[in-house]
Amino acid sequence: MIKKRYINLLNKKIVLLTFIIILIFTSCSRNIPSKQQRIQKLQALIPNSNYITKTIHTDTYSFYTIQQQNNTCKNVHVYFEGDGLAWITRHLISDDPTPLTPTTFNLLLKDKYQCKVYIARACQYTNDNHCSKKDWTSHRFSKQIIFATNKIIDKIKNNFQNDNFIFIGYSGGAAIASLIANQRNDVTYFISIAGNLDTELWTKIKKFQPLTGSLNPVNYTNNLKSIKQYHLIGTKDSIIPYKVTQSYIKKFSNKENIKLKSVNATHNCCYEDFFKEIIQDIK
């Protein structure tokens, strides 16, 4: 009899807990713009007809890009988007990582150079059947994603017929940029904005689950020694602590090519004007 009552009580608690979880999920999701709304928000920022949106396919992933048309350039500036809406809450994974705010494209708009490309991350802004939640959580910097993104860079080079690249990465996009730059010999400059460049240290500091299926940029820097770098970090950034950038920079014994600037910004705001000054000075 006592055992039966205990089981009934336990079942009621499970039902109540399930209800609470559903309620929290519904509450968190209710105010999140739909994927289509997020796409429209980005597209509304595209300034003129000289830009085209193009989804580029690889054997594994598809990538949403915005690029200028019909330009042949010696250098191309490539902008890598951040992690986007990877999580709804600390414990609730998003169904779609498309960013709420296109921070990286806002940075691109501050760049007056004529040859530039915006690359969203794998699974952002697309309906890609290859995607699963691990692609924007534990495996967001996996070998497969880095390989596929690097293939996109090859296709961009074939299109623009350029000699070199300048890579600009925001947040997790900086990790992507660093990992790809380490595999290439045509990247002359790497700029990170609030960059996640030591993912193991980051997860430890933030007490997040380890990114078990991902590469850690801090472990892949051997081929970056001759590349000029500029790292922009926010003094009010509670997402990517200063120690993460510091750990990455410590990997380079010769720091002559590396610049670091701390500015009055949070993780999501407001780097644009600071970045404009940096990108204008790069030849």
Overall description:
The chain folds into 2 domains: 1-31; 34-281, Alpha/Beta hydrolase fold, catalytic domain (Rossmann fold), CATH 3.40.50. Helix content is 35%, strand content 20%. The protein is built from 8 helices and 10 strands. The chain has helices at 2-30, 35-43, 103-108, 143-160, 172-181, 199-206, 242-249, 272-281; strands at residues 51-57, 62-68, 75-80, 87-89, 92-93, 116-119, 164-170, 187-193, 228-234, 258-263. An 8-stranded mixed β-sheet has the order 1-2-6-3-7-8-9-10, sandwiched between helices. Helix 5 links the parallel strand 7 and strand 8. The longest helix is centred in the first third of the chain and has 29 residues, at 2-30. The relative contact order is 0.12. Residues 15-29 have low confidence and may be disordered.
CATH architecture tag of the largest domain: 3-Layer(aba) Sandwich
Number of separate helices: 8
Quantity of strands, as a count = 10
* Average pLDDT figure: 91
Q: Give the CA-based shape.
A: globular
CATH topology of the largest domain: Rossmann fold
- Structurally, the number of domains stands at 2
Structural class: alpha/beta
Neighbour order of strands in the largest sheet:
1-2-6-3-7-8-9-10
- Poorly predicted ranges (pLDDT <50, ≥5 residues)? 15-29
H/E series: HHEEEEEHEHEHEHEHEH
**Which percent bin holds the helix content?**
25-40%
CATH class of the largest domain: Alpha Beta
Report the CATH superfamily of the largest domain.
Answer: Alpha/Beta hydrolase fold, catalytic domain
SS strand fraction: 15-25%
Largest sheet: 8 strands, mixed
Estimated radius of gyration: 21 Å
- Cα-to-Cα separation, first versus last residue: 81 Å
Keywords: Hydrolase
Organism: Arcobacter arenosus
GO molecular function: hydrolase activity
Protein name: Alpha/beta hydrolase
